[in-house]
Every structure is written in C-alpha cells, then in structure tokens.
Structure of tRNA nucleotidyltransferase:
Amino acid sequence: MPNRQNFKSKLTHKVFGTIAEISDGQNLETYVIGGFVRDLLLDRKRENYDIDIVTVGSGISLARDVASAINPKLNVSVFKNFGTAMFKFDNIDFEFVGARKESYRSDSRKPIVEDGTLEDDQKRRDFTINALALSLNKDRFGELLDPFGGLDDLANKIIRTPLEPGITFSDDPLRMMRAIRFATQLEFIIEDKTLEAITEQAERIKIVSMERVMDELNKIILSSKPSVGFKLLDKTGLLPIIFPEFVKLKGREIKQGISHKDNFYHTLEVLDRICPNTDNLWLRWSAILHDIAKPATKRFVEGQGWTFHAHNFIGSKMIPGLFKRLKLPLNEKMKFVQKMVLLHMRPIVLSEEEVSDSAVRRLLFDAGDDIEDLMTLCEADITSKNADKVKRYMHNFRIVRQKLQDLEERDAIRNFQPPVSGEIIMETFGLSPSREVGMLKAAIKDAILDGLIHNNYEEAYNYMIEKAKEMGLSPVK
C-alpha cells in the first residue's frame, strides 16, 4: 500500500485531464471518488468498472462539457431526478454528480437530497474505504482527501462506516449486504462495532427490494470463497430473513447414537470447492441448492440410520418457488439449476458401483450438454473426511468421465433423438397418435441406451418391427 498522500501517477486516463481543464476553467472543485479509488489504491484489477466523479456544483453540466470536449457526438445520459449524468468512453462508465448531503425517512431507503460540500458527500458514503477521494483540480491533482481514515482501513483490511454504523445501516439497510459483500470479495474483516450494528439492524433489510438483495448475494456467491459471506449473513441474522430455506439445513440430529452431517456447513464446503472450477453463477447456485430438500426428506429408519430419500427429486420441484420468491430469473437459468439438483446423485451412485455402459449412456442422455457441469458439481460434493473414501470416489469419477467420452464418441448419445420418429412408426403401422406409438418410441430409445442396438436408422427400424410384432402390430402394405 503506498504511504504517500498524492496519487497523481495513478490517474493516467486522459478523461481525468479533460475534467481537470474544464473544472479549473469553471472554478469547480472536482474529485474522483468511491470504488474506483479504493481499487486503484489496492491495485485491484477489474475488467468492467465505472468511475464516479463528484463536483461541488452541477454534475450534469460538467458531464456535458467534458463529453463535448472529448467527442461532440458522445451521448450523455441525464437523470435529472438524481442530479446525475453519465457517458461511456473507452468502455468505462463515467458518472458525474454534484456533491450532496442526504437525510432519510424510517420507511424508505430513498434519501432526501440537498446540495452539499465534498465533506457532506463523503459522510454519506457507506464505508471509509469507499469515501476516499482524489482531487482532479490541477494544483492538487491526485491529492488524497481521507477524512475518515479509509487509507488506514485499506492497509489494515477493515470494513468500517464513516459515521455511526447504526445510523448508516438504518438509513440504507442494503449497506449491510454491501459490508458483507466487500468483506467477502476483498478478504477484509468487518470492524466489531460495524458488525454489531448489522446484527441490531438486520430486520431493516425487509424494506429493501429482493432484487437489490439478490444482486449483492450473487456478488458474494461469485467471490473466491463465498462461505465467508454466508457465515457472516448467518451470524448477523440476515440469512434467516432473506433465505430461510437455506438456514433450515443447519444442525445435526442424533438418534440411537447415530447422527447425520450438518448440511448447512456441508453445502458451504461444496460451494467453496466448486468455485476454483467454475465462475458460472448458476452452477454455483446449483451447489447451494443441491441438498435444499434434505430437511423435508429427513427420516430415521431402524437398521439404516438417517435417510434423505428423493431429496434430489423434491429439491428440483422446490426450485421454481424459490427462484420466484428470491426474484431470480424464471427462465433457462432456473431450468439448468433444476436439472443439476435433480441429477446430482446420479454420478455419485455410478462412482459407488461398477460402472456399466448402460448407466453411463442414460446419464449422458439425461444431462445432455450440461454433463460437464454436472460432473463438476458432483466432484465438489465429495466432502468426506475419510481420505481413502475420497480417493476411491475420485478414481471412479475418472472412470465415469472416460466412459462418458468414449460412449459419446462411439454412440453419439448426447441430446440424441431416436433415429425412427413417431411419424415413421405411425406410417409403418397405420396408426394415429396413440399409446402404442409412445411405447415403440420408448422401446427404441431404451434399446439404444442399453446398448442392445446402435444409434442408427437400420438397427432401430428392425428393432421396431420386432417389438411391434410382440405387441400384435403388423406393417401396413
């Protein structure tokens, strides 16, 4: 972390120079502030980012003047109600706002906004590390303004609010989610007083829209170790409010000296284990939800111990309701998660038994193009503390993967359609759509998956004739 208080050498983008020229010409105090400054001082690389510019004056007017100086044809989007304007240049969003101070009503996180000073603007920021500002005026270009010790908090890896945290979180409860998100993403610690305030204000999260809450939760899920965030959400009491179904996984029950694993912590381990192998948000959601029906399916059976029969099937049925309540997309992304939850036991069962070609063909047929994601999920699901057991599972998974590859190359099973269609069946036997047509189609599909015939038209047609004969059907002349 640099210990000097001027960071001129870091402000290299040419737009900053243009802002400096125009601000000085109009006698405006102007600063770059917020997340861009934080990440600049952390040397944190981000592929997509936006840059917040605050000026003691009209942000809209300044945005228009800067955009015009860069390129008169540059489009400026103006949001008069918020006093902001933005333009995109070099694939970066530059957002301009006039310095302001805010006050809040208890029933809303929408502030009452008034013009203010830079200090007022810094006070309204969520955390000290996001209140750091660098001057863009020429005589002070790159000078750091840090009234709340944000630079020290960056160095010490601390999340802390500029003002009294209880007020900060009561005013805008989404900041509680953001605190946990930053702690997870940056691998920082939330300062004790700030963490206590989140716990005290947890109920206030209910006034925030689920869409905004999920936006923050998804960023936690996409971090390198999401369990950190989930444990903080649980510790502060936010998780039972926003995602009670997940909290139900917690705990171990003992009967006749037999206990089951704590599925809450098991799930978090699966989630952390899958992260190095995928940045697919919906595969990570599949890890979160793969055992979601275990509380509903838990039974103690004499002589067997604890069972969770059909938890994969019940879990897949729960997904649409969960996605709807959590305001997650009710489209192919939801269907992908459903499929992963439904099928997640299949490769594990294969890895416990002798791997037959037929079982592998059926897995490949059911998983289709998502087979690699399914195998990635299942490998992450092996969290046993028994090293020999894990070694055996992983060895068998390698066998399953090899068989998947071999059978796909040989039989083209993935996403296949039986080579004899329903139309051909009806035409051959003079049938209209009926149960018999469905039975013959299913018989052909099963014969291919079981390896009785190859996936080609001639063998499938001949097999159809034989099966039809058994059903008392004859080809029409």
User: Anything to note?
Assistant: The two ends are 86 Å apart (CA to CA). The chain has four domains: 8-154, 167-242, 276-411, 422-470.
